[in-house]
Amino acid sequence: EIVQVVAELLAGPKPLAGKRVLITAGGTIERLDPVRYITNDSSGKMGFALAEEARALGAEVTVVWARTELAPPPVAEVVRVESAQEMYDAVMARLPAMDVVVKAAAVADYRPVQREKVKMKKGPDKLTLELVRNPDILQAIGDWKHEGGGAGANKPYVIGFAAETGDVEGYALDKLRRKRCDLIAANDVSEPGAGFGTDTNILRLFGAEGLVESLPLQSKREAAGRIWRIALARAPGLRAVDGEAGAPRA
Amino acid sequence: EIVQVVAELLAGPKPLAGKRVLITAGGTIERLDPVRYITNDSSGKMGFALAEEARALGAEVTVVWARTELAPPPVAEVVRVESAQEMYDAVMARLPAMDVVVKAAAVADYRPVQREKVKMKKGPDKLTLELVRNPDILQAIGDWKHEGGGAGANKPYVIGFAAETGDVEGYALDKLRRKRCDLIAANDVSEPGAGFGTDTNILRLFGAEGLVESLPLQSKREAAGRIWRIALARAPGLRAVDGEAGAPRA
After folding, report:
1. Which CATH architecture has domain B14-110+131-238?
2. For the domain A2-109+131-238, what is the CATH superfamily, name and number?
3. Which of A141, A178, A179, A229 has the most CB within a 10 Å radius?
């Protein structure tokens, strides 16, 4: 009997068994020419931690990843992309099959209007770069879920991120409402231990009603586990039926 | 006697013993705001390979590095920088002490005029980014050597790189003459196996007289070894005196 209890403790529950989870991770790359690009400080660590935890909880995980510091974990499907447009295409094509979508990638808001075919040579002292808005992936997911193809189909639970400086709560709640997410995980990237690239994070989770929970400074893996537990508590439909839960770890 | 020969073969000659070598590596980061930046595909591998080979040949090596895929090798001094301006400052401050300078970093030609203090929010559909020229580090080294502080002092041997697409030879020779380098290692980054990020390179070395040698497709470490042998052959003053050569590997 003790052996059985220990085995169950080691295996852990599988509340996401049979559920399909799509997670975006990393920073997109918007090219100016064959060698130069605009990107950001995202390391991919938070998205990958969420992917590992979801897999440990039994989910079938797809990771759509752009530039990261590390390689993605060995989940069911990994899709490598570079630009915001490529990430948008990869996500939207897979959306109808998903039970949960987590948008942890840092997606460039703008891309260069023109992408030069050959490496640009040094020119004048000043240069003007024309940028144009990229598609807003989180907005597109929310709109699809509430109005578009998702209206009569699968309605995925949508978790967004808000990496901010300044009025984090204001931005996060505004973002959640505009983009129609179910949950927003917000951090102040100017706070030590909460920034891009670190192994830790300090997250505050917001739902439509306001603050859900303030997580302490903890590893991204621990934060990821807490996010899944909160999502499961708030979306009972996500929880696997009893027969699937508790299956041994693959 | 056989043991001694084998030991010498293993240790290898130390023709750069006592020489001070500065190598820049990686791609500079030019920030738009606290999380976004412009960079390039440089992995730092070529610069780090040159640093490792120089160290193996007995040199006292300083590496000034910006964003790279790997950490720098354990040379005498490593200086982490981010922007072109920071790299310029780190290099120029150390220049008078150096016997050789290798500029393997991919330095941004331009930086944003303005660097926002807080993360920029999404705004209009189109955006214009004003850029301004960065200091030209290789030009500054050549000018210093021939005209400035270097006129009466140490005159380092200067090796530049030219990562080009298109007319590689034309660009490389023009660059060598304008920037007054001693040697330019040029590659066509659109050629498979010769681009940024790869473990191999296909380099052509140019001196003031034209093509010096075309290196085959080979590992960056092998290419680095060949570059040092060619530099030593072309600059006899670089070669350590007999008493220093052949010292055992540290």
Report:
1. 3-Layer(aba) Sandwich (3.40)
2. CoaB-like (3.40.50.10300)
3. A141
A28 near A82, Cβ under 8 Å?
A: yes
Rounded to whole angstroms, the Cα distance separating A108 from B35 reads 11
Of the candidates A34, A129, A189, which has its C-beta nearest B189's C-beta?
A34
Contact state of A37 with B40 under an 8 Å Cβ cutoff: yes
Least confident of A165-179, B91-105, B109-123, B225-239: B109-123
Q: pLDDT for B129-149, tens place per residue?
A: 999 999 999 999 999 999 876
Mean pLDDT of the region A94-107: 96
Q: Say what the pLDDT of residue B106 is.
A: 95
Please name which of B86, B119, B79 lies closest in space to residue A195, comparing C-alpha atoms.
B119
More confident: B101 or B190:
B101
Instruction: Give the pairing type, strands A218-219 and A200-201.
Output: antiparallel
Q: Is A136 in a helix, a strand, or coil? A: coil
Q: Give the A:B interface size as CB pairs under 8 Å.
A: 102
Catalytic residue among B40, B134, B187, B201: B40
3-state helix/strand/coil string of B9-61: HHHCCCCCCCCEEEEEECECCEECCCCEEEEECCCCHHHHHHHHHHHHCCCEE
CB contact under 8 A, A133 and B126: yes
DSSP B139-161: HHHHHHHHTSTTTTS---EEEEE
A40 belongs to the catalytic site: yes
Strand, coil or helix: A236: helix
Amino acid at B92: M
pLDDT category at A12 given cuts 50, 70, 90 is: confident
Higher pLDDT, A72 or B249: A72
Q: Above 0.90 for ipTM, yes or no?
A: no
Query: Domain ranges in chain B?
Result: 14-110+131-238
Cβ contact (<8 Å) for B118 and A166? yes
Q: Using CB atoms and an 8 Å cut-off, which of residues 45-74 of chain A contact chain B?
A: none
Say what the pLDDT of residue A246 is. 43
- CB distance B35–A131 less than 8 Å? no
DSSP string for B65-89: E-B-SSPPP--SEEEE--SHHHHHH
